[in-house]
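Page 47, continued from p. 46.
Same chain as before, 216 aa.
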Amino acid sequence: MDVTARIRAGRWAEKDKVAALIADALHPDPLAAWLVPEATRRRRILTEVAAIWVEHAMFYGDTYVTDDMSAAAVGFHRYRSIPPPANYRSRLTDAAGDHAERFEILDGLLSARRPTEPHYHLAFLAVAPASQRRGIGAAMLAHHRDRLDRVDLPSWTDTTGEFQNIYNRYGYTPREAIRLPEGPVITPMRRTRAPGPDSLDTISAVGGSQARNPGL
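Result:
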Protein backbone atom coordinates (compact mmCIF):
# COMPACT_ATOMS: atom_id res chain seq x y z
CA MET A 1 0.00 0.00 0.00
CA ASP A 2 1.57 3.26 -1.06
CA VAL A 3 -1.01 5.63 0.37
CA THR A 4 -2.65 6.14 3.72
CA ALA A 5 -6.37 6.62 3.35
CA ARG A 6 -8.38 8.42 6.00
CA ILE A 7 -11.79 6.76 6.02
CA ARG A 8 -14.85 8.45 7.47
CA ALA A 9 -18.64 8.28 7.29
CA GLY A 10 -20.13 9.77 4.16
CA ARG A 11 -22.31 12.85 4.38
CA TRP A 12 -25.73 13.47 2.90
CA ALA A 13 -24.35 16.26 0.73
CA GLU A 14 -21.85 13.80 -0.80
CA LYS A 15 -24.38 11.22 -2.01
CA ASP A 16 -24.26 12.38 -5.64
CA LYS A 17 -20.45 12.26 -5.65
CA VAL A 18 -20.55 8.73 -4.24
CA ALA A 19 -23.01 7.67 -6.94
CA ALA A 20 -20.76 9.11 -9.65
CA LEU A 21 -17.77 7.30 -8.14
CA ILE A 22 -19.63 3.99 -8.20
CA ALA A 23 -20.55 4.52 -11.84
CA ASP A 24 -16.96 5.35 -12.78
CA ALA A 25 -15.63 2.23 -11.05
CA LEU A 26 -18.31 -0.04 -12.50
CA HIS A 27 -18.18 1.36 -16.03
CA PRO A 28 -15.38 -0.93 -17.35
CA ASP A 29 -16.97 -4.07 -15.89
CA PRO A 30 -18.92 -6.45 -18.18
CA LEU A 31 -21.83 -6.10 -15.78
CA ALA A 32 -22.15 -2.43 -16.71
CA ALA A 33 -22.28 -3.27 -20.40
CA TRP A 34 -24.95 -5.88 -19.74
CA LEU A 35 -27.05 -3.46 -17.73
CA VAL A 36 -26.73 -0.64 -20.24
CA PRO A 37 -25.62 -1.91 -23.67
CA GLU A 38 -25.85 1.61 -25.06
CA ALA A 39 -22.37 2.97 -24.37
CA THR A 40 -23.22 6.65 -24.84
CA ARG A 41 -25.79 6.54 -22.03
CA ARG A 42 -24.12 4.00 -19.76
CA ARG A 43 -22.28 6.26 -17.32
CA ARG A 44 -25.22 8.61 -16.82
CA ILE A 45 -27.67 5.78 -16.21
CA LEU A 46 -25.33 3.97 -13.83
CA THR A 47 -24.87 7.19 -11.87
CA GLU A 48 -28.57 7.96 -11.60
CA VAL A 49 -29.51 4.43 -10.56
CA ALA A 50 -26.67 4.26 -8.04
CA ALA A 51 -27.87 7.56 -6.57
CA ILE A 52 -31.18 5.92 -5.62
CA TRP A 53 -29.37 3.27 -3.58
CA VAL A 54 -26.78 5.56 -2.04
CA GLU A 55 -29.60 7.74 -0.75
CA HIS A 56 -31.42 4.65 0.56
CA ALA A 57 -28.29 3.55 2.43
CA MET A 58 -28.32 6.86 4.30
CA PHE A 59 -31.53 5.64 5.97
CA TYR A 60 -31.07 1.86 6.14
CA GLY A 61 -27.32 1.37 6.18
CA ASP A 62 -24.18 3.44 5.94
CA THR A 63 -21.69 4.95 3.55
CA TYR A 64 -17.97 5.30 4.14
CA VAL A 65 -15.60 7.32 1.98
CA THR A 66 -11.99 8.39 1.87
CA ASP A 67 -11.40 12.06 2.59
CA ASP A 68 -10.40 12.70 -1.01
CA MET A 69 -13.49 10.88 -2.31
CA SER A 70 -11.36 8.40 -4.23
CA ALA A 71 -13.15 5.38 -2.74
CA ALA A 72 -16.48 4.53 -1.16
CA ALA A 73 -18.23 1.60 0.50
CA VAL A 74 -22.03 1.51 0.63
CA GLY A 75 -24.00 -1.10 2.53
CA PHE A 76 -27.25 -1.99 4.27
CA HIS A 77 -27.98 -3.21 7.80
CA ARG A 78 -30.18 -6.21 7.13
CA TYR A 79 -31.02 -7.10 10.69
CA ARG A 80 -34.53 -7.61 9.36
CA SER A 81 -36.31 -7.03 6.07
CA ILE A 82 -35.99 -3.46 4.83
CA PRO A 83 -38.30 -1.71 2.36
CA PRO A 84 -37.24 -0.73 -1.15
CA PRO A 85 -36.55 2.93 -1.87
CA ALA A 86 -39.64 5.10 -1.99
CA ASN A 87 -41.26 5.05 -5.43
CA TYR A 88 -38.47 2.80 -6.62
CA ARG A 89 -40.09 1.50 -9.79
CA SER A 90 -40.96 4.93 -11.12
CA ARG A 91 -37.58 6.35 -10.09
CA LEU A 92 -35.78 3.45 -11.77
CA THR A 93 -37.76 3.99 -14.96
CA ASP A 94 -36.93 7.70 -14.89
CA ALA A 95 -33.24 6.92 -14.39
CA ALA A 96 -32.76 3.94 -16.69
CA GLY A 97 -35.54 4.28 -19.24
CA ASP A 98 -35.78 1.24 -21.49
CA HIS A 99 -32.87 -0.37 -19.61
CA ALA A 100 -34.81 -0.55 -16.34
CA GLU A 101 -35.85 -4.16 -16.97
CA ARG A 102 -32.26 -5.38 -16.79
CA PHE A 103 -31.74 -3.70 -13.44
CA GLU A 104 -34.91 -5.38 -12.21
CA ILE A 105 -33.74 -8.79 -13.47
CA LEU A 106 -30.43 -8.38 -11.69
CA ASP A 107 -32.11 -7.25 -8.51
CA GLY A 108 -34.48 -10.20 -8.52
CA LEU A 109 -31.74 -12.78 -9.04
CA LEU A 110 -29.51 -11.33 -6.33
CA SER A 111 -32.31 -10.82 -3.84
CA ALA A 112 -33.37 -14.45 -4.20
CA ARG A 113 -29.92 -15.60 -3.04
CA ARG A 114 -29.49 -13.18 -0.18
CA PRO A 115 -29.64 -14.76 3.30
CA THR A 116 -32.57 -14.17 5.61
CA GLU A 117 -30.42 -14.18 8.76
CA PRO A 118 -29.29 -10.81 10.13
CA HIS A 119 -26.27 -9.62 8.16
CA TYR A 120 -24.54 -6.64 6.65
CA HIS A 121 -25.01 -6.28 2.92
CA LEU A 122 -21.96 -4.73 1.25
CA ALA A 123 -23.66 -3.35 -1.84
CA PHE A 124 -20.82 -1.32 -3.35
CA LEU A 125 -17.10 -1.06 -2.83
CA ALA A 126 -15.69 1.29 -5.45
CA VAL A 127 -12.33 2.92 -6.14
CA ALA A 128 -11.94 5.66 -8.73
CA PRO A 129 -10.07 4.34 -11.79
CA ALA A 130 -7.30 6.94 -11.40
CA SER A 131 -6.71 5.83 -7.80
CA GLN A 132 -6.63 2.09 -8.33
CA ARG A 133 -3.64 -0.14 -7.54
CA ARG A 134 -2.53 2.15 -4.73
CA GLY A 135 -3.89 0.13 -1.82
CA ILE A 136 -7.00 2.22 -1.24
CA GLY A 137 -9.31 -0.70 -1.89
CA ALA A 138 -7.39 -2.73 0.66
CA ALA A 139 -7.82 0.00 3.26
CA MET A 140 -11.55 0.22 2.63
CA LEU A 141 -12.06 -3.53 2.85
CA ALA A 142 -9.94 -3.83 6.00
CA HIS A 143 -11.96 -1.01 7.58
CA HIS A 144 -15.17 -2.81 6.68
CA ARG A 145 -13.87 -6.09 8.11
CA ASP A 146 -12.82 -4.54 11.40
CA ARG A 147 -16.18 -2.84 11.91
CA LEU A 148 -18.11 -6.06 11.41
CA ASP A 149 -15.77 -8.16 13.53
CA ARG A 150 -16.42 -5.90 16.51
CA VAL A 151 -20.08 -6.92 16.42
CA ASP A 152 -19.50 -10.40 14.96
CA LEU A 153 -21.94 -9.75 12.14
CA PRO A 154 -21.88 -11.82 8.93
CA SER A 155 -21.43 -9.95 5.66
CA TRP A 156 -22.76 -10.65 2.18
CA THR A 157 -21.72 -9.25 -1.18
CA ASP A 158 -21.83 -10.10 -4.88
CA THR A 159 -18.74 -10.07 -7.08
CA THR A 160 -17.72 -10.38 -10.70
CA GLY A 161 -14.60 -11.73 -12.36
CA GLU A 162 -11.29 -11.24 -10.59
CA PHE A 163 -12.87 -9.68 -7.52
CA GLN A 164 -13.78 -13.07 -6.09
CA ASN A 165 -10.10 -13.74 -5.38
CA ILE A 166 -9.74 -10.38 -3.67
CA TYR A 167 -12.63 -11.02 -1.32
CA ASN A 168 -11.30 -14.50 -0.57
CA ARG A 169 -8.32 -12.84 1.10
CA TYR A 170 -10.63 -11.13 3.55
CA GLY A 171 -12.58 -14.18 4.62
CA TYR A 172 -15.39 -14.28 2.06
CA THR A 173 -16.37 -17.66 0.65
CA PRO A 174 -18.22 -18.09 -2.65
CA ARG A 175 -21.72 -19.43 -3.03
CA GLU A 176 -23.33 -20.84 -6.16
CA ALA A 177 -22.71 -18.49 -9.09
CA ILE A 178 -25.47 -16.63 -10.91
CA ARG A 179 -25.33 -16.31 -14.69
CA LEU A 180 -27.26 -13.39 -16.07
CA PRO A 181 -29.26 -14.07 -19.25
CA GLU A 182 -26.71 -13.77 -22.06
CA GLY A 183 -24.53 -11.90 -19.61
CA PRO A 184 -21.67 -12.21 -17.10
CA VAL A 185 -21.44 -14.48 -14.08
CA ILE A 186 -21.92 -13.02 -10.61
CA THR A 187 -20.68 -14.82 -7.51
CA PRO A 188 -22.47 -14.21 -4.20
CA MET A 189 -20.06 -14.38 -1.24
CA ARG A 190 -20.53 -14.69 2.51
CA ARG A 191 -18.14 -13.76 5.29
CA THR A 192 -18.14 -14.57 8.99
CA ARG A 193 -14.75 -13.43 10.26
CA ALA A 194 -11.77 -12.36 8.21
CA PRO A 195 -8.59 -14.42 8.70
CA GLY A 196 -6.57 -11.22 8.98
CA PRO A 197 -5.33 -8.42 6.77
CA ASP A 198 -3.62 -9.28 3.54
CA SER A 199 -2.30 -7.42 0.58
CA LEU A 200 -4.92 -6.24 -1.86
CA ASP A 201 -4.75 -4.31 -5.03
CA THR A 202 -7.78 -2.26 -5.78
CA ILE A 203 -11.40 -3.01 -5.64
CA SER A 204 -14.26 -1.63 -7.63
CA ALA A 205 -17.06 -4.02 -7.03
CA VAL A 206 -20.68 -3.91 -6.91
CA GLY A 207 -22.70 -6.03 -4.67
CA GLY A 208 -26.10 -7.18 -4.79
CA SER A 209 -29.23 -5.70 -4.29
CA GLN A 210 -30.39 -2.98 -3.30
CA ALA A 211 -27.06 -3.42 -3.47
CA ARG A 212 -26.57 -4.06 -6.66
CA ASN A 213 -29.81 -3.14 -6.83
CA PRO A 214 -28.94 -0.70 -8.85
CA GLY A 215 -27.96 -3.52 -10.40
CA LEU A 216 -25.12 -1.67 -9.94
